[in-house]
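Cross-posting from the modeling subforum.

Setting up a comparison between two proteins and wanted a second pair of eyes on the formatting. Protein 1 (sequence, then structure tokens):
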Amino acid sequence: MNATEPDLSARWKRFAEAYWGREPAAVPFAPGLGPEQVYGAVAASCAPSAEDAAGVRFATATQGRLRDAGALLPGRDDADPDAYRDRLARQLSGSGWLLSVGQPLWRDYELWAHVRELVSGLWRAVGWPALPVTAELALGERCAGPDAPAPRPGSFALTWVLAGTMTVRLWPEHTGTEYQLAASAGDLLYWPAGCRHLDHYLDRCTTLRIVVPARRAAALTHVRGLLADRMQEDPAYAGTPGVLPFPPPEGPDGEIGAAEPVAATARLFTGLAAAPGTARELRVSWAARRSAAGLEPAPPPRPAVPLTPGLRVRASAELFRIPDGPGRAVWAANGHTLAVEGAGPERVRKWLRPGVTLTIGELGRGSRMSAERLTPLLSDLHRMRAIELVGGDGAA
């Protein structure tokens, strides 16, 4: 595989034909990223104020995972990955270590968008993920990953080595075969679902890993979380179970039923699971996921800016569209959704073609939408990064 070939889709198609769903492999496949580009997201995730610090893991080769890594995490004085590694070499007296961060990409839109485009080529060849995928960035130095491989791995993994070298031992389910793969900067490691694995990070190694659920049971966590959120918003869920008599009272037929607060919760769960609103929410969340290539969470929308008729705009992302009832639709771009209604927005979408630059005034005339309706729509699209502002001449 030629790592310099410009046609990413063709590279992924050959990769899928040769390896997808078959066996582990290590192949040249440069992702177009370097360790410096991902370090900022790693450092931001390790900052004391980071909301997603739970995804940070730090271990040393001698002590294993540390519950509180403290000053061993990147700090303000660690300007780049080399400065950070040099500091740890001094602090740890050359002992090996491993820092991994789960779901850090949302902090840097450009990084997130690069990875989204990278994996989108594969999804076009094999199908789009139905569930969120997990992205992990890791920096390691002569240190292994977890002490033992996962007992029932239900996901497939793609791991790009951005710097240094690493090795992976793999044990596919239902076989006695052991694979040992080695990779260096510019290589991609792949293994299908059902492979237990052990990583070993060497020589100033930096990696990007994408993990995709591959078994139907993985959908349970997603659906359960959605229903749990809806239940807590329902007034019927308010209050506490309180105390119950024991033994519980018998019914007229002598049978003992479930405690009523528990039974009521089960009925509420069943009702919400069958409600049309749940099906719609699952459909809309999938539209957002499709537009994000599965990479959740997506970067937040950017701040709103004033829009005037003379400003010029152009499309900057695919608007993924799903119907949402008569005259209604949901648009999705960059992991965010927008509900639209009527023919006017659809005319706007048709005018926003790749490579075409228009003033907001021209869009209004072409779509026959008033400024009062068009401006909020374009503002939402701009915040979702579905359109870009490219200047203007002040014309009305």
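Protein 2 (same layout):
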Amino acid sequence: MGLSWQQGPLSTGAIGHFLTPEPLPERLLFAERLRRRMRVKFNGTWIADSEDVVLLHEPGRYPVAYFPREDVEETALVDGGKVTRHKDLGDTAWYSVSAGDRTTERAAWEFTALPKHAGDLDGRIAFAWRAMDAFYEEDERILGHAADAYHRIDIRTTSRTLEVRVGGKVIARSEHPVVLYGSGFAPRWYIPRADIDGTWLRPVEGQTFCPYKGLCDYYDIGDAHRAAWTYRDAYREVDRIGDLVSFEADKVEVRLDGERLRPEPGQGVVPHGADRGLDADEVKAR
């Protein structure tokens, strides 16, 4: 779903490969200027505001934004005296973040002994996403993680036939499904509710969210837990899938033009670090 995670080209589960005569290093890190104004709010105060943010794409992680120290409010950072070591980038100094009457420990970090080839990150500060009130691009809040410029979603209509079966019984059949192509993901097929026997869909508690699509609701189907999902109020950019239903090919039988779909590896979203957890509470406060 981006450059360095899921099945992206720099991820550990990449489905493609670079055409080079020699093997590439097992881990490739990629740093790039964001070219967007980004701001950070903590305890109701703007503590960072920069048009010179660098995004670090690290294998298996969402992109992380690094701000020049001069664009960070000087009084917001308090040296916590904690140093850890990054396997590629050396010593990492951790800071508490403080504004007004609120202080959060280990809420920001900086690489202090960078190798020469990683100078793009020298003197830059990153903030733990979940420890801040919010991150913004210009005046719009960004949810989940820094926007990955290499993520793309395309939605296409099709006249192919999609069937969903449980125990040999057809519970959904559509001749006009919608397919969503997301960077790093296998295609996801969505069916209009009119083409589904809704008695099979049993709503379950618990939602997740995607920073690009919105809040996701799930359904059990028979004994299969969370075997289908829907974005009832999908974001405007992807509203063509709004309230359509998609089915997990590893939990129920899904056939496209008679051919059974099989799940691909590397498709699960795994939080990486305490500051990378994604949950529905964040989107509800959008």
